[in-house]
Amino acid sequence: MSDLEDLYREIILDHYRSPRNRGALETPPATRTEGFNPLCGDEIVVYVDIDDDGVISEIAIEGQGCSISQSSASMMSAAVKGKTVAEVGALNATFKTMMSIHAGDIGGGTDDVDDNDPSSDLQPSTPVRLGDLEALRGVVKFPARIKCATLSWNTLAQAIVEANEQSDE
Amino acid sequence: MTNETNETFDVAKVKADFPTLDRCQDGKKLVFLDSAASSQRPRQVLDAMTSFYETSYANVHRGVYQLAEASTAAFEHARQTVARFIGAPSPNEVVFTKNATESINLVAGSWGRANLGPGDAVVLSLLEHHANIVPWQMLAAEKGFEIRWIPLDDEGRLDLTDLDRLLDGAKLLAVTAMSNVLGTITPVHELAAAAHQHGALCLVDACQLVPHLPTDVSALGADFVAFSGHKMLGPTGIGVLWGRQELLETMPPFLGGGGMILNVTTDGFTPDVPPGKFEAGTPPITEAVGLAAAIDYLTDLGMDAVRRHEVELTSYALRTLHDALGTDLTIHGPSEPAGRGGVLSLALEDVHAHDISQILDHHAIAVRPGHHCAKPLMRHLNVAATARASFYIYNDHRDVDRLAAALVEARDFFQR
């Protein structure tokens, strides 16, 4: 089961069984953003509350999906809480690079994994430490599952865009 | 081969005809349980297509040279083979399309666009595949007609209690003959008769019917029947729309281009007669030859025997899986094998469909996770996804046993 053990690390299963920051936030002040994986039907709802200093002060996750999408969302929520939008952008970019099957293989380095990736607007930055999120590295060996792992991050990037629009109004 | 026998066929011999089924993953022989998405194809189909390309290929309905005549003859022979297989009164009622999705879009874009408007209604069921939902939603957005839904009972069968009310004032009933998610076989004959009583036409999505059960479009009583070649041992890129001659004659063309006209001037065009009217552009010629070879293969086995094999295998699977997994396992859909096809949508307590499929793949077992292009049905079942195992002529008890063992392992892996 070595490949499977690599995919389903203990920390992933732990987040799947005991998801962090599960629930809803009041909107407003928080924003509510839905993400869908049209291939498998996974759905995720990300609530974020960004304070005046651009810090994600609260985040909550709803939805349903497989162990990879749910644990990735849980780990993401723990990783971004208390961070600034800029820090989250850098984290997202680093995570996406790890999740790219072609990372380092192709000249030009375009990431063709996520065509509709709102985080692709973010400035590429120096890689940051991923911490627990490293556990998802094994997913890359299973290309069909990459979208499971990136769904929550794409939804968060969209949520940040929407939160900024809301505060501009 | 008569209806009275219980004879099926030698599955081991059938298996040996399918090169893909020789595939091994990490030393384990592939168990292919995703035929509801697309079947595999036997050597006979591959050989027929290669041989056609090598000896008889040219564009059809164009050239006067002998090669073009040979190609056209093979293409039209394929049309006759399809017509005979589905009991169509005439090969001219058989339109070749890209797939069943295009067949349904053809009816929506041609008959629907000409006949549907505000105040009209199209009746669908909650079992439908997106292919028989979205074309009607697209047209409804343009034409402003209403879409009504036949609900389901607890076992995923059509609940026909309100059928008369639903059909009242409807112009079309578009319904699947067998659910690609639950395997539910619907009473198409009864539905078509009810539609006609209300002055509506009946379109049948027969994607899961034609590959698995004897099909006679005349006996079904429907007006349109759509299916795909790739789910019945044939190649991708070819589908069929069967339609009643008088309807096809009065319907406007769907796609415009070469091959579908009698005449074109700078002022306009005159369409061809059916089926040519609906076959714009170079059709899937070699694919038609492949589909005919697939039909020959199925005909040799006998469609009654195919159905018997699948009922027997489905009964064995329902029993074996329930014995192995007890209450940890839910199999959505009708509990009686006689009322369903060999399509099992599985749910394991605490294990998501994606994770089930991943662990099954580790055991070289191919099933499909997801919503199976039937999201309204998934919402009705209140699940986001299921893992679907679907059977065909090349599956046997051994495949079911391996599925059961791997599901036990998936459960244990996630419950540890």
Give a summary of the structure in a few sentences.
The complex is a heterodimer of chains A (169) and B (416). In chain A, 38% of the residues lie in helices and 15% in strands. With 169 residues, chain A is of the alpha+beta class.
Task: Provide key terms for this protein.
heterodimer, A: 169 residues, alpha+beta, Sufe protein. Chain: A, 3-stranded antiparallel sheet, 5 helices, 15% strand, globular, B: 416 residues, alpha/beta, Aspartate Aminotransferase, domain 1, Aspartate Aminotransferase, domain 2, 2 domains, 7-stranded mixed sheet, 4-stranded antiparallel sheet, 14 helices, 17 strands, 40% helix
SSE order and pairing:
The complex is a heterodimer of chains A (169) and B (416).
Chain A: H1 2-7, H2 10-17, E1 31-37, E2 42-50, E3 56-64, H3 67-80, H4 85-98, H5 146-168
Antiparallel strand pairs in A: 1-2, 2-3
Chain B: H1 11-16, E1 24-25, E2 28-29, E3 31-32, H2 43-55, H3 66-85, E4 94-97, H4 100-115, E5 121-125, H5 134-143, E6 146-150, H6 163-167, E7 170-176, H7 188-197, E8 201-205, H8 217-220, E9 224-228, E10 239-243, H9 245-250, E11 261-265, E12 268-271, H10 285-301, H11 303-325, E13 329-332, E14 343-348, H12 353-362, E15 365-366, E16 368-370, H13 375-381, E17 386-390, H14 397-415
Parallel strand pairs in B: 3-15, 5-6, 5-7, 7-8, 8-9
Antiparallel strand pairs in B: 1-2, 4-10, 9-10, 11-12, 13-14, 14-17, 16-17
Helix pairs in contact in B: 2-10, 3-10, 4-5, 10-11, 11-14, 12-14
Describe this structure in words.
The complex is a heterodimer of chains A (169) and B (416). Chain A has helices at 2-7, 10-17, 67-80, 85-98, 146-168, and strands at residues 31-37, 42-50, 56-64. Chain A has 169 residues and is an alpha+beta fold. Chain A has one domain: Sufe protein. Chain: A. In chain A, strands 1-2-3 form a three-stranded antiparallel beta sheet, covered by helices on one side. In chain A, β1 and β2 form a beta hairpin. The radius of gyration of chain A is 15 Å and the shape is globular. The N and C termini of chain A lie far apart (53 Å). By secondary structure, chain B is α/β, with parallel strands linked by helices. The N and C termini of chain B lie far apart (51 Å).
